[in-house]
Every structure is written in C-alpha cells, then in structure tokens.
Amino acid sequence: MTSVPIRDPLADHLITPQNAALIVVNYQRNQFRSVRSMDSDLLVENVVSTAKLAKRFGLPIVHSTVGVAAGQDQSTLPELADLLEDYPSIDRTAINSWEDADFLAAVRATGRRKLILCALWIEMSMAFTALDAMPERHEVYPVVDAIAGTSNKAHRAGLERVTQAGAQPISWISARRRATARLGAGRDRSRNYRDRLHRPPVDGMSRKSALMERSRTDHTRDPLCPVRSRPIKNNATAIQLSGRRLQP
C-alpha cells in the first residue's frame, strides 16, 4: 500500500505536533475530591498519558492551577507535576483561566491555534476556557477521557455546551494514533512488527509461540500504554483489559 504525501503539519486542519499546544488546568486535590463522573484513578492515568504524549512529540504545554498562593488548594497532583516540572504552574485566582493575564500571555506565546484542553471540572474551568478561546480564533479539543465533572449530568452538559459552540472532543488514544500515524512512528512500528515476524524462532519454541511472546513483552514496554502493570497472557486478554481500562 502507498500512502498519500504527508500534509503540511502547520497548515493541516487536523492536530499535529507543529500546530497544537496542550493546556493543563486545575489537576489539584480539591478538584479531584469533587469528581463524580469518572473514576479518579483512571482520570489521573489518562491525563498523565496525555502529558507524556505531548512531551514525546514536543508540544508546547501551558500548565495552570487555581488558589494555591491563596492557600485554598494544593498544587498539581504529584503524578502529573513530576511530568510537568519543566512547565512551571501559572497560579490564578479566577476560575476561568482565560481571564488571567499570565495564563493568556502563555497561551498566546505558544503561537498555536489548536488547543488540546485538559481541565477540571468540565462544566466550569474547561467550559469557560473553551468558550472564551474559540471567539479568539482558537480551535479547542477537549480530551474527553482526561476530564471529568462533579456529576454525570454536569459532565454531559458541559461537554455538549462547548461542542455546540464549536469544540471538537477527542480522546488521548485518538491523539496518539494521529500523531504516530502522521509522523512515521506508525510506519516504524509496522516495520518493527515485520522484523519480529521474520526473526528466527527462539530455541525450543515454534515461530507462532515466539511471535506471541515477543508481542507480549513489547506491549508491556510501551511507555504510553496504560495497561502495563501485569503480563498479558494472550491477545484476547489484552483486548479485554484495554477495553475495560480506557472507558471514559
């Protein structure tokens, strides 16, 4: 099969590492305590995966908190803060991050019009930021499996509100597939798969058994794969686990 030429990554109407920035807002303990529309552990896992993806492909990242200097909340959760140590948090007093001059200056300094948005909660910080950014000619992409609300109804209402205004919801997995497919990592992975297929079998193992073993160990080494805490016994188990862990 022959792919069409890769489009200009700056002018592409889809997200690319050259035309997008990641915005991370309010991933703090008090916000997590009020989340009811999604499992908190899975939420942390998905926003961490999103940040890893952004760092891997060199996206500009704007990182912000609310009320830390005023003593109203703690800073970003350690799991995420460790990843964002090169992106100092912009602490705000306003719930709407777009109303903070330092935050606004940081977003504009990226030079990017496509904003991949992770913010808590959906119905407030995410919605307000998205609704203010879009009239200023920004395209907003809320990461639906890395954001959450204070109830299921609030979650749905907040997401519907920004979608009707023009936001384009994505998942962190879809962003990963897009980036790897267009930047050649997907082709490299396919080539690696073909290399494994043609390697000589391990002594005492059939070619099929050797390939299954290599696939299992390669899967658990993937730094962006959220299912890596235990060995994968077979393909059916891998599919079942992935489906369960990635439900929004």
CATH architecture of the largest domain: 3-Layer(aba) Sandwich
Name the structural class.
alpha/beta
Can you count the beta strands?
Answer: 5
Q: How is the biggest beta sheet arranged? A: 5 strands, parallel
The fourth-level CATH homologous superfamily of the largest domain is: Isochorismatase-like
Helix content: 40-55%
What is the CATH C-level name of the largest domain? Alpha Beta
Strand content: 5-15%
Predict the CATH topology of the largest domain: Rossmann fold
The SSE string, one letter per element, is EHHEHEHEHEHHHHH
Q: What is the number of independent domains?
A: 2
Shape designation: globular
Main-sheet strand order equals 3-2-1-4-5
Low-confidence stretches: 185-202, 214-248
The averaged pLDDT comes out at: 80
N-C termini distance: 34 Å
Count of DSSP H/I helices? 10
The gyration radius over C-alpha positions equals 20 Å
What can you tell me about this protein's structure?
- Helix content is 46%, strand content 10%.
- Residues 185-202 and 214-248 have low confidence and may be disordered.
- The longest helix has 17 residues, at 40-56.
- The protein is built from ten helices and five strands.
- The chain has helices at residues 29-33, 40-56, 78-81, 101-110, 122-133, 152-164, 172-183, 185-198, 207-221, 235-245, and strands at 20-25, 61-66, 90-92, 114-119, 139-142.
- It has a five-stranded parallel β-sheet, sandwiched between helices.
- It folds into two domains: 20-176, Rossmann fold; 184-245, no CATH class.
- By secondary structure, it is α/β, with parallel strands linked by helices.
- Helix 3 (78-81) links the parallel strand 2 and strand 3 (90-92).
